[in-house]
DNA sequence: AATTTTATGAAAATATATCTCCAGATTTGT
DNA sequence: ACAAATCTGGAGATATATTTTCATAAAATT
């Protein structure tokens, strides 16, 4: 036997429909008509929409086993939550041979949730715009990162360097940033990485670059680096992690997607460059042959 | 141009995120967290759930272009109605506002599959063993990466350096690797990153380190670096990507999970070190204060 | 360091929603 | 057709939600 609390409002209505009075049936039909959205307004709104009085709504709510109208509505909210929630996020266990509480599984849960949230926030149009900016050979691309984000900046730079010419990685030491600023021209793009704790210097660099007419793109976290306010475009990744540190996994995900987008916007040139690169590698015998 | 009334609440939040204040961003994130169900309660309930005051909720609602909170909520109700009525348009996409074929969605699919496969392959016992090895202060940890994996090595190094002393990042230039080999002692741990195309030099370094009694841990891809054969432990991440490059997202995921595991194995010391680090940052005023 | 601007939440004021009560309408049983 | 039981909604009482006001705190600017 299912406990009454676990029945949906719709089920309760169906179960007790025969016990309902005329006005209540009218109300029940109106609710089922466009369920569950029809039950979301105030008791007054629901009453009016169904052409019954508010006490009728209340009485039916009580008949259905709720303590009052707000109680019924809370149940509807939970149902909506359950219906709308993305089922992909609910993977019970990632590493099947490890317990749920193993760090691998906990991490996997959080990362997937981060991914879901991040993708919901990204505006694909803005993403495309930035990809186009970055594939424009007319203007240079400058990349800068902070203490932790340096690795991301470096990763991004390494790939962009293969895709196109005229890409600079700004050195981590902010003392010599003025040298880099010298080389930035209007229309150039500055890609800055900054997650908490946000670094003063990045903010400064962004402001100065902006005043020189440089288009600034900031990759930051869900709270947003202060530098993002001065940026033309910004991408917010969720960086939650079951650890003392933040997670950069999703930031890297967005970066890789961006690299892929830029690459496909200018595949012909990129392909050429990659081939030349292969040749160079062959000559230096840096790599073993891949089988 | 879309009329403002036709934008969803989520879109409005995205559009104006950069104009939001700290408390408002906190609220926005809480709403997006479990959207749209999170916005269904009373203004008070929403405020409490997000840990902000009710006026903040109201102010944000107005900033987003609504006349008040009930207006915002009515918009949510309409969205829910639209979503539920059209079940096909729903949840099979990550970035709901981009087509399935958009690179963001294709990337998300692949990453998710990579994660599944990778976690299925990892032996949690081995994972734990390596975490213990890395948290043993008696022995030094050396980290090395290749052309692409350098960023991962760097990331791992940066974090390990905070967690414990006696961690070295081996410089990318393999000419001077012999210098580093000089400092490796039996029982030390060498963490090497190597994904295709596998690099000859990494292989050489691993072999030599092994012959000196160093415990080698290799992070590689699903096919496995040849260096992995000489390693005591190895972790294989799936690096498939819808792009000309491989994806490092899952490798980073495993690295972060490992960092978290090591950190929790020696939390007391790590905590001390992190506090000292905070103090140092405060003194150098490198970061802006995070609120 | 001092000043201005902006952001924030506590608390009061207002508006709205919810519930209670009850008088009349409707149905049911005789 | 009549009495009893039940149903229904109007109107007021109460509770809650929403908005406004304002003092304080934080941040930006000078």
Q: What this model shows, in words?
A:
2 copies of one chain form a homodimer. The first copy, chain A, has 2 domains: 81 residues, Arc Repressor Mutant, subunit A (Orthogonal Bundle); 181 residues, Rossmann fold (3-Layer(aba) Sandwich). Chain A is built from 12 helices and 5 strands. By secondary structure, the first copy, chain A, is of the alpha/beta class. The radius of gyration of chain A is 28 Å and the shape is elongated. In chain A, strands 2-1-3-4-5 form a 5-stranded parallel beta sheet, sandwiched between helices. The first copy, chain A, is 52% helix and 8% strand. Chain B binds a DNA duplex (30 and 30 nucleotides) through α2 and α4.
List the helices and strands and how they pair.
Two copies of one chain form a homodimer.
Chain A: H1 9-16, H2 22-33, H3 43-50, H4 54-63, H5 69-84, H6 103-121, H7 124-135, E1 141-144, H8 150-163, E2 167-169, H9 177-182, E3 189-193, H10 200-211, E4 215-221, E5 233-237, H11 249-265, H12 267-284
Parallel strand pairs in A: 1-2, 1-3, 3-4, 4-5
Helix pairs in contact in A: 2-3, 3-4, 7-11, 8-11
Chain B binds a DNA duplex (30 and 30 nucleotides) through residues 21-24, 42-44, 52-56, 58-59, 68-70, 289, 291.
